[in-house]
Amino acid sequence: MECDIDDVIIRGELPADLDITYFRNGPDPQFPPRGGHHWFAGDGMLHMFHVQNGRVRYRNRWVRTAKWALERREGRSLYSPFNPMQNDPITQEAPDEGLANTNVVWHGGKLLALEEGHAPFEIDPGTLESKGTWRYDGQFEGPMTAHPKIDPKTGEMLFFGYMVSGPFSAGMSYQTADANGALTRSERFDAPFASMVHDFITTDEHVIFPIFPATGSMERAMKGEPPLAWEPEKGTHIGVMRRDGSVADMRWFETDPCYVFHPMNAYTEGNRIVAHVMQFEEVPLFPHADGSPPDPEKAQARLCEWVFDLADNSNGVQRRYLDDISGEFPRLDERFTGNNYRHGYYGASIGGAGGLGFNAVAHQDFGTGRRSQHVLPEGDITGEPVFVPRSADAEEGDGYLLSVVYRARENRSDLMFLDANDVAAGPIACAELPHRVPYGFHGNWKYNS
Q1: What pLDDT does residue 142 have?
Q2: 119 and 48 in contact (C-beta within 8 Å)?
Q3: Average pLDDT, rounded, for the chain
């Protein structure tokens, strides 16, 4: 469903100083899936919340990729979620533009819908009209992560791609674009093995590429076995390079098998790199190589600290959990991306909720080591909490958290606004939609002027 709401009902009082547009992306299949359903496989659906003068205007639109258009024409699903060998033959007539269903970022004057297997897809920021694949004036090659990092000091955007040498290959890329959106760097290297590398980590001095044993295999795909699967015997390999260096200078660290969809942040401190990540003991949502399902106890993420000692020759990683609750979708005050910071936020499971349906928004204060949280009413589920500063020069953590929340009893969704300084106090306002927003992934915002 696509719709426009000119004046969303507001419960509470929106901050008068909020003058932003928040965009959120997520999967929303227009037809029943071909083969088994997978959360990651739906068509990209963008939701836009224009917040100004204490009011909210809403619009949502599917991203009109070639896949979306072909399936709309045929009136049915044509693509397998992860195995191209199982696509309908008619799909060969359409360009491969992917799903554009995972994240949406504003950079270089362009709004880009992202999904890690393909190039960015440009969207009109005012109308959500689909404009088509964006390849940086023809200079961009290969897929792009859905999680680029923007340097808060320079405006430079850093990003990578995996399986760039072909499906289920070990080839990876590292690229950068300046604040104006011009591609400034493009390098390639090989990972230790073909891995599903959803995200990466940056500091003001380093770039970190984590290669987990969630492997890709064309051999498995051709046999009808899981093309993406968990192979813990391969271990975890983490490549670290200086931002002013080259991929040829990559140093590889090794640690026990684990999986991380999303880091929170990291920083370089002398000869150490400290990273905070949401770590799983094994990858969720994907099977073992033999087809057996993941262990539900191990497929829960917890906030974990990684420390790399650059002066040590052991190439090991010190890891310790910082909390015992499960959670995901970590964010921070992005003005501190890649730098030492104090405040982090994530969706959390409090009181045994478990799984990937989070019933709380958690605030981790690294200065005090304490966690606070707002727990939703029973049955409600929150998405990713996105931080917006109260003003451009506000202190770190002084601002608001925005999150799309599903209201189970009413089968509809809100955009919830929390005071980031006092998450436990609960929402200061909610923009109440009359319909359900499908449980999705990531979003970002831009100033209206």
Answers
A1: 85
A2: no
A3: 96
